[in-house]
User: What shape does this take?
Amino acid sequence: MSVAAFPRVWLAPMGGEAACAPLVASVCNAGGLGWLGGAYMAPAKLAQTIDAIRASTSQPFGVNLFCPQPWARDAQREAVFAAALAPFHAALGLPPPAVPAQCEEDFEAQLAVLIERRVPWVGFTFGDPGAGRVGALHAAGAQVVGTATNVPEALQLATSGCDVLVAQGAEAGAHRGSFLGPRDAGLVSTLALVPQVVDAVVVPVVAAGGIADARGVAAAQVLGASAAAVGTAFLLADECPISPAYRAALEAGAAHETVLTAAFSGRWARGLGNRFTQATDALVARGDLPDFPIPNAMTRPLRQAAGQTGDAGALSLWAGQALPLARRAPAAHIVRRLAAGWKGD
Ligand SMILES: Cc1cc2nc3c(=O)[nH]c(=O)nc-3n(C[C@H](O)[C@H](O)[C@H](O)COP(=O)(O)O)c2cc1C
Assistant: This one.
């Protein structure tokens, strides 16, 4: 693929609260590539959101899903985790924590929606979609993007036929895309990771993690990236529908540090430290959490209730290390501010 074939500024996919058509469409209409984090959407909702994006922009856009990973129930771990959640449930007036009947969306059904809707860009995190699925997406006219946090992951994704790789550095907000090696093998900084991945694969590489202004975009270009994918800075976009408590915590975020925690979902993710991350620190350090996505499903009620009541201490305050550089503005302004860092197009 020609490296000139896509915008230099990407709205990185952000699943959950931030995922919405207006933000994606605004970025596309401002000359960026908008990505929808679709992983937490049921297939019907995904289809509806894709249609809403198409109704608001004629530009190409992307949809990102979580590659499923094997997981197993473990009554002992679930009981320990439920005990850790119980005080939060009591404080929020919720029934006792429990594992719901459905812990994750049906990945193959989500993928079928993207193929049927002929979504122009389809991306994955948490794993390798495999050559078969990549081939099916190519047949439907999609460009396929994989997420790598180290060189072995990049090589595997390239072998499966991904057209573009996102190199996600350790600075990035929310979940690590890692799927090969121990945790620390997937915590390489963007500065160190991007040139290694650029050298290892022939496909274009997009830098992600810690990029929040024009200087970060310029640095990504120097490192050999073909574009910069930005998540955290777009959390403060006017169009981003996060809860007022989350937004207020982000706007005060310069005063707080981000931490890596697995306690909200069972996978490592970066966000602002709060009462919940502190209360679950020891549990996470012991490493005896239930498998992802069980904790994610078990913490959903408390996260939703905390959002409604404005209790930032029990919310997953996903944010990357560049949060202090982020500024509230319409998404189009953020795109233009970032794009000013890219030289020569
Ligand atoms: C709130 C939030 C949700 C995210 N959800 C997803 C997701 O669903 N899929 C994905 O591939 N990456 C997800 N990410 C990671 C971003 O796509 C991107 O890698 C990261 O935001 C880049 O680093 P930055 O936050 O420093 O800009 C998320 C990031 C944030 C901040």
